[in-house]
Amino acid sequence: MKSKNTFYKLRVLHGSIYERKMHFLTFIRRKIYYSMPLGKKVFVLGTPTHKNVGDSAIVLAEINFISRCGISKKNIKEITIDEYKQYPNLVKHSIRKKDIICLLGGGNMGDIWIAEEYFRRRLLEDLMDKNIIIFPQTLDYSDTPKGKQEWEKSKMYYDNKRITLIAREKKSYDLMKAAYPSAKVLLTPDIVLSSNQEDYGIAKQQKREGILFCMRNDREKAISDEVCKELENFIKTNLNYTIIRTDMYSSECISEKTERIEAVRKKMTEFTKVKLVITDRLHGMIFSALTDTPCIVFSNSNCKVKGTYDWINYIPYIQYVETLDEAKKYIPILLRDEKYNFDNEPLRPYFKKIEKILKLTN
User: Fold this and answer.
1) What pTM did the predictor assign?
2) Which among 14, 23, 47, 195 would be 20 to 30 A from 108, CA to CA?
3) DSSP H/E element including 47
4) Are the C-beta atoms of residues 297 and 316 closer than 8 Å to each other?
5) Mean pLDDT of residues grouped by 10 in the chain (362 residues)?
């Protein structure tokens, strides 16, 4: 038989767990209900809590874009993946039919980053009676038995007249149109290209030094380590520039708004301090464009880098290359001391398509 002391300890333990749950529940209720004015609301659901700074830039750009479409920021509510997983029913019951649901843009529609894909499918299943806008995404299923299986399964979720799918490259657009005929499908650039460095609190940098390498080291990597080393040797031997290395990750997981802004500002500032960026990362290229920083960009394992470069190939200081020799050719050209200014005016008509959808849903 358990002693009275044991029962007392259990009671205290269960009480503390209950109190923590109630505290979090109250926090979520306030986050959803009480901090938002009356009227139509926009829920940005499933935002990440990991360290990828590019994804945090997407979150900020998406919210800023929605607000520029005439929706008050007080009526835009971000719900992270962790928050949704904790209390899905509370979030679901907080969304009314007239509200707008926006899911995050990025590059995770497919079987490469399957956890993110599964979570998005869960959201679509939970909210199948609501109108949903999926911001600019890359669609990429591998040519494997698993990839083909997931590709077929995806049609159950995305082939829905209530869903607006936005592709960020032509290849993804064509795949979406063919696979999901019931959905509304748009083609626009990555949503971060709708913003500028001032949106993230970045000052124009006057002094620039060195060459920044921002290369992938994950399953999307396509360029070999040998090519990177040879490129570094070329720079050291022939150009006498300091090489600086970075990646697109924060040192800590990012979840709160202040953390997102600070992480993006810190990373983007790294780009403003150098004369040239060499990258194979999509948002390495986009951060270079926004910060007026010359950039040599290699492809990754799928279509998203080349597809996004096709949108911004009018920008003179961003150069896509496929070989080491091409990179060696363009590096000295881009290192010339010229002043550049990012201009996204040619892209604005495409972003207007998303604005129109938001207003139609609104």
Assistant:
1) 0.88
2) 195
3) strand 42-47
4) no
5) 49 51 58 59 92 94 94 92 91 88 94 94 93 95 95 96 96 96 97 94 84 90 89 92 93 82 94 96 97 95 90 97 95 92 96 91 60
